[in-house]
Amino acid sequence: MGQSVSAAKLRSRPDWNHRQRSKPKSTALICPMQAEETEELERSNTDESSDFISDLPDECLACIFLSLSPADRKRCSLVCRQWLLIEGQSRHRLSLNAQSDLQPLIPSIFSRFDAVTKLALKCDRRSVSIGDESLVLISEQCRNLTRLKLRACRDLTDAGMLAFAKNCKGLKKLSCGSCAFGAKGMNAVLDNCLALEELSVKRLRGITDGAAAEPIGPGVAAAALKTICLKELYNGQCFGPLIIGSKNLKSLKLFRCSGDWDKLFPLIVERVAEILHLVKTPECTNAGLGAVAEKCNLLRKLHIDGWKANRIGDQGLIAVAKSCTNLQELVLIGVNPTKLSLEMLASNCPNLERLALCGSDTVGDAEISCIAVKCIALKKLCIKNCPVSDHGMEALASGCPNLVKVKVKKCRGVTSEGADWLRSTRGSLVVNLDINLDIGEHLDASASDGGVQDNGIEFPPMVGSQIGASSIASSSTGRSTSFKLLGLMSGRSFVACTLRRLANTTGIFPEYYTQESMMPYIHELHEQTMVVPLLGGFELVKANYLHLLAKSVFNSSVTSSQQAIKTEKLVGWSAHAFGWVKLNTNEA
């Protein structure tokens, strides 16, 4: 408001000065006291009419704009032409809807925002994305680009990526997901962008599956590359030459990448200096983890999601304990360690500060007691969906002297009384307890502030609208009031038809139905409709909504509460089966 008033004064100042100059001046004699009063009055009038903001250097205004929210920056750009120019020149980050109709607007957009160094181009899956011509045009206008994010730009080809890479050789970070270009386009970037430090690739559809896949890398970018993240790739092993050739690699993250990684680990992990994530790589076994331990002596962070495949256990963890003595953070999800391996990890890794144990059937009170005695440096502990009871909490009361935070979720044996006792016994210890048990939950836990693994899950589009989701903060009350929800959107008639047939097949949805028996119907639903996440607690599918849904879909005599549970189960399993959402119950 103040800025608008100031600008208005700036526009009116010439008229005011003109009126001052046109005033007739008296030639009468004035005494000294009257002269002083007149000068003071003139100075006060001048101060009131001055526009101090317009006297600020452009660089100072740019710094102020950088501290504002995007909405406030837009408002400021409407104040005057000077502010419009400064706001555009000081904007370094830009996110654009990368639909095909963006192309004619590119020259005007980047003539205003000519200092952009970080660009995100995102297209929804129902629209036609920009093509090579648009990307080349952007690269010609943004030659100082250092970061580029591409999402669902399916019309980009290898030729377009080659032209882009030649124009933006200073690129430092590239993230691409659900794009259609292949190994040639990726190699074009690696051969031209010698400053590339971070590479993230998700669902790159153009990579050929099988032995005929073209190898990717290393290229000139390998010398500077520090972080590689590969997600949901059928043939992620084709990035092997790049990983092997990256001599300064510090972080390697593999998420849901199929293939026999055990054969590659002895070659590629030697370059990984600090961080390694192995998330849902089912072919990875104790042998592969042993190779990691042998080569990565300086490893600081290790995240393993074994997907409950029982291919990684004590043998691999003991190898880690023997070699990775500098380990500071360890996250085990769907892995079944015993007291033997946990004791060795605690004894051999004196710097272990963050530990997460999630979905482990073998982690009980004895294992927690071992951690309490041995892990002297431990500061944060997360236990989720493990057979731990209040006795394990009692062990933490006298152990782990540096412990500052404990997070316990979905552990049936831990009660609110046990958590309260631990809280009262160690007054400085933060205890977060969530004892609510949800069916079909996708495991995700973290002992670190930044989270265990990448949470940027791509959601299928909604027909007719877009829905944003955000996480709900949790407290230590042990009471869950909201969680991420699912709705059956679009194709409702098909859903009803399929579920009615399911009801007839399984006997009006009996209590004994299992996830395995439901999977054929879930896959059939997946072919015709979409399960999408909605936010806001279980307000999405309230009891009345569930009652109507159950009544119209199942047409059976069971109670609405039973139908609500069954509907929630079906939707949860469906989402979990296709990895679309992270079903997560959070505390209020």
TrEMBL record:
Source species, domain of life: Eukaryota
Stretches the record annotates as Disordered: 1-49
GO biological process, one term: SCF-dependent proteasomal ubiquitin-dependent protein catabolic process
GO cellular component: SCF ubiquitin ligase complex
Limits of the F-box domain: 50-96
Listed InterPro entries: F-box-like_dom_sf (IPR036047), F-box_dom (IPR001810), FBXL15_LRR (IPR057207), Leu-rich_rpt (IPR001611), Leu-rich_rpt_Cys-con_subtyp (IPR006553), LRR_dom_sf (IPR032675)
Protein name listed in UniProt: F-box domain-containing protein
Source organism of this protein record: Gossypium barbadense (Sea Island cotton)
